[in-house]
Design brief:
mainly alpha; single chain; about 80% helix
């Protein structure tokens, strides 16, 4: 990181033009300070975080419910699998005209775009996590007299939980890009609008920091996965 900043400073310091395509580190830090001291920035940030939280919560809920059903039932998989795959490969921009017609251009439309864009990915990854549970674990539980609900609660979900967390982390990263796309269309407040006006790439930074938090909690919540990965076994 230090080397990158040094190269940045050396390549921009000699420019004396009034307009600079790439500002100097000093100018960037000064603009960042002014932005953080601006009350308008925090209002835009809160609006974006509210949309992100609601949209992501909706996508995770749909992904967990549908993914679990698809992973456990071949019938549900055959009925919904093709539809989910089609939605997964549909660009989120295709949803924007329809969501504007259905929900207008207020917060609801932005939330729906995030949910529709990320839920298919979450669903597929959760279904794969459920299916990856080792058969011998399930057979062992049945042999010991566990019920189907007990197998689900004590065997399948603990086994799939690390992969589900990774699925949520990846879906969260995707949701940030979809949020920006949604906010570029008819948003009165939010970081997408702020990005256009201020020409800052703050959403990328927030997305990166969010990913770091997901990874940190992953190591805390599933410490055995770190041991298994170092040993070379990706399964629980």
């Amino acid at each position: 990181m230090g080397l990158v900043i040094l190269i940045w400073a050396l390549t921009t310091q000699g420019s004396t033009s009034e307009f600079q395509l790439v500002p100097t580190p000093q100018a960037t830090l000064a603009s960042l300070r002014d932005m953080l001291l601006s009350g308008d920035f925090w209002a835009q940030l809160l609006a974006t975080l509210e949309r992100m939280a609601l949209g992501f919560a909706a996508s995770v809920t749909m992904g967990l419910v549908l993914g679990t059903a698809i992973g456990l039932s071949r019938v549900v998989s055959s009925l919904l699998g093709g539809i989910i795959d089609a939605l997964k490969y549909t660009p989120v921009s295709a949803f924007i005209p329809l969501t504007i017609i259905w929900f207008g251009i207020d917060n609801s439309q932005k939330i729906v775009v995030i949910a529709l864009g990320t839920a298919p990915y979450m669903t597929v990854m959760v279904a794969d996590a459920i299916r990856s549970t080792r058969a011998e674990y399930i057979e062992g539980g049945l042999t010991l007299g566990a019920s189907r609900i007990g197998i689900m609660r004590r065997v399948i979900l603990p086994s799939a939980a690390p992969q589900m967390w990774d699925a949520a982390r990846l879906a969260f990263a995707i949701a940030w890009t979809y949020l920006l796309t949604a906010e570029l269309v008819g948003a009165n407040v939010g970081l997408g609008r702020f990005l256009i006006l201020a020409e800052r790439f703050l959403i990328g930074l927030i997305g990166f920091l969010s990913d770091v938090l997901f990874r940190t909690f992953y190591r805390r919540l599933f410490p055995w996965m770190h041991f298994m990965t170092r040993r070379g076994d990706g399964h629980v």
